[in-house]
Amino acid sequence: MTAAPALMDTALMLAAHGIPPLPLRAGKVPFGNCPDCTGNACGGRPNMKTPGPCQCPGVCHAWAAATTDPRTLTSPAWETAWRRAAAVAYHPGGAGMTVVDLDNAAAVAWARATLPATRTVETTRGEHWIYRSAMTSHNGVRPGVDLKSTMAYARWLGPGTGTMTDLPDVVRALAVKEPPTVRPTPRSVSVPARSRGGQCPHRTPAFLERGIAMAEQRITEARSAVHAAVYRTFLAVLSTHGRCGCLTDTHITRLFTAAQAKGESSRHCTDAWTNALTRLGL
Fold this sequence. Notes:
Elements: H1 3-16, E1 21-25, E2 29-30, H2 70-73, H3 76-84, E3 87-90, E4 97-102, H4 105-114, E5 119-122, E6 127-132, E7 138-142, E8 145-148, E9 154-155, E10 165-166, H5 169-174, H6 205-220, H7 226-241, H8 249-261, H9 266-280
Parallel strand pairs: 6-10
Antiparallel strand pairs: 1-2, 1-3, 3-9, 4-6, 4-8, 5-6, 7-8
Helix pairs in contact: 1-3, 6-7, 6-8, 7-9
């Protein structure tokens, strides 16, 4: 059997299971647009939110060419593409899936320690973790980690092992960007909330202590989306106590320590705190 029929058979198998396939050229890249669509002169199929070929008879518009229509996949124009193709890819979002693309051993180790188990596919350098449900695709959400779902493609490397599970909040949270960090003139991170005698002018010291303890507990009990949980907790503490000057370095150190115990870096803690200060105008 030649390469073309083998790749086409794989594509038809995927289509039969509701997974829209497309051919890849050497170098794991899609076929380029046809002459009529060069430079997206036709309006740009990838700007649309659903997969499927445009009106062109051949493979066109990268991920958006992916389709489950067997007539299209076996058409003469597509057969020519399959003969030139080097691999089969698919559109995860079109199948209601999200691929967490782990590009190296460190990324795989992070996933095994952080993400719930799901179907796993080995890749050349790492692994694909596949979850049920689609989301917006994002590259570089962590070192060596990309999220491939809607308006993206992933190479087909086999069915993998394990049972596919629902997309967890911890993966969705990776795509949530905090407000841009505004880096002020170097200073202690606690300066904007410096203590004036250690007592809150509008609450009792016991209220402050209870608030810090509850914030530590909120961070400690976070089971997913730890980045977002730390930022929201910092924001809540500063919105209550950031303007009255009752916070001390000791209080802030307690919050940072709780966050770092959940795996956050000192850099992330500082950035999250600074972002919260900026958000509140402190």
